[in-house]
Amino acid sequence: MTKVSFIGCGNMASAMIGGMLGSGRLSPDQIVASAPSEETRERAQQIHGIRTTADNREAAAGADILVLAVKPQILPVVAEEIRDVLSEDVLLVSILAGVSIAQLEASFPIEPGALRKVIRLMPNTPALVGAGVTGICSNMAVTQDEFSLVCDLCGTFGQTEALPERLFDAVTALSGSGPAAVFMMIEAMAEGAVSLGLPRQQAVRMAAQTLLGSARLLQETGRHPAALKDMVTSPAGTTAELTRVLEERSFRSALIDGLRAAAERSVQLRGNGQEEKNGSGQ
Ligand SMILES: NC(=O)c1ccc[n+]([C@@H]2O[C@H](COP(=O)([O-])OP(=O)(O)OC[C@H]3O[C@@H](n4cnc5c(N)ncnc54)[C@H](OP(=O)(O)O)[C@@H]3O)[C@@H](O)[C@H]2O)c1
After folding, report:
1. Whether the CB of 7 sits within 6 Å of ligand 1
2. Domain residue limits, the chain
3. Which pLDDT score is estimated for 281?
4. Measuring CA to CA, which residue among 163, 173, 160 is closest to residue 98?
């Protein structure tokens, strides 16, 4: 029976645990999580029915899969604490934004010449409702079966995309920071609707559903976004006016430039060995 240990049990760990248990992929007795505060531990016990502990070493000992789910700046402390209780063949899975596989290998060294099994994930906040998208990559020590197992587990809280690590700054920009752009768009669309007379709550609900429904239409038909845009745009109609104004105001290039700036920031933060003070570092 695979034992999965989480070091840190905040928002993202809780979303992952919720998915893994909700799907029936794992049972509560397979998971243990550590966190310093009693409040967090009690919440995890109540919501997920899993065992929790304040002791990272206790959580890490005997783990088959160890998920690092603390803030990136806590990594050195945690590594120092648990490295000697980890088995040589534990599968180390990190969700730490901006922390590379090489940094993880160096934080958890094993005997000279051997390589620690490391998987790096980049999940996003929609994982909280089981609709995330997680970028995944690994080092050479991870077998195809182990990689597939973690892909399956990530599939319980959304979609999984295998990508080389060199693209993780782009992943951080697209799916990590991307939700903020989507929320801004929902907010702005609702604001436009309110200015046209819609009650605010209905406007927000309808804007959100418009986004969700459009995304599903794209996913389920597999059609190109431009083809779906054309489908809704009648000659000299209302949508043609909407898209004309958005093009005039550089809507698409603002998003392209925004994503490029976010990826550049991710590179800078990685270089400084730091993450944003607030939030997850995306
Ligand atoms: N949120 C996102 O969108 C997102 C996306 C991708 C990646 N990430 C990454 O996911 C990681 C966690 O983010 P999060 O949003 O889940 O943060 P969070 O909600 O703040 O969770 C952090 C957890 O770490 C625990 N912790 C703090 N110090 C610890 C220690 N010394 N030993 C063990 N546990 C400790 C905290 O415990 P207490 O609650 O007891 O303080 C808390 O449960 C970060 O590295 C972030 O970069 C987040």
Report:
1. yes
2. 4-163, 172-272
3. 42
4. 173
Question: What's the CA dihedral at 224, 171, 133, 47 to 10 degrees?
Answer: -160
> Is the beta carbon of 172 within 6 A of some atom in ligand 1?
no
Give the DSSP H/E element, type plus range, for residue 106. Answer: helix 101-107
**Is the CB–ligand 1 distance for residue 12 below 6 Å?**
yes
pLDDT tens by residue, 141-179: 999 999 999 999 999 999 999 999 999 999 999 999 999
Say if 4-163 and 172-272 have the same CATH topology: no
**pLDDT, tens digit, 9 for 90 and up, residues 233-277:** 999 999 999 999 999 999 999 999 999 999 999 999 877 655 444
Asked if residue 219 has its Cβ within 6 Å of ligand 1, the reply is: no
What pTM was computed for the model?
0.92
Full DSSP string of 171-188: HIIIIIIHHHHHHHHHHH
CATH of domain 4-163: 3.40.50.720
| Ligand 1 atom closest to residue 36's alpha carbon, by position in its atom list | 40
What CATH class is the domain 172-272?
mainly alpha
CB distance 96 to ligand 1 below 6 Å: yes
